[in-house]
Amino acid sequence: MDPGGSHSQRPPAALQEGAVPALSCQEGTPCQPHTVDTTSQCHALPGSFLTVTFCFACRSLMPRTLDSQITVEKTPSYFVTKEAPRRIFNMSRDTKLIVVVRNPVTRAISDYTQTLSKKPDIPTFEGLSFRNRSLGLVDTSWNAIRIGMYAVHLESWLQYFPLSQIHFVSGEKLITDPAGEMGKVQDFLGIKRVITDKHFYFNKTKGFPCLKKSESSGLPRCLGKSKGRTHVQIDPEVIEQLRDFYRPYNIKFYETVGQDFRWE
Asked: Between residues 23 and 181, which one has the greater pLDDT?
């Protein structure tokens, strides 16, 4: 950044429920000339933390940017944190929000698989998912289940931000067509489509696309060791019950955002 340039605190684009790695301006990574990444994440802190303090603390962690730049900050927990919409609105009502979503059943299984790798003694996926499986009573207090109720969480955000300021990225298409999804993100941010097909290649071992760095910077950047694990095998009947549970939430979500993610 040119230290002699004109600096200002531009409204950030906050990434919810996951990262869009191609927007991170890290060393050697193909990066939008109009975006700058924050190395320090600013989290929506617990309810006892005063909003005004949050606003000043969050802004102080943002890098100073030029008028032609956009600050991008990501925290996966924002979308499901009750206090986050109000606090982000109070910080900057012009903030653009990017939400990465995926099939909630697959998301829950992935969540469980990652937790199991760290805590092998936790109960079974089925045991955590249901209060009473024979009656089909899903336990919505379990975080892995609750996060996937996207329509419920979205209601809180729409109290403060119009849909025109929220962009939803398909987690499935981000894997199968990363350039296409990133093109939509760049359009949403109002910046030139610089990140294209040439910046990605599919890693068969991981099962995810990797981000190519510049020709002079060596190896491409792929997801870390905690990503791309083989999911735990779940009883198909359990999966079907969870699909039935999520269906009305999914339909409401599709109708609200005007986009069918085809999770049925």
From this structure: 181
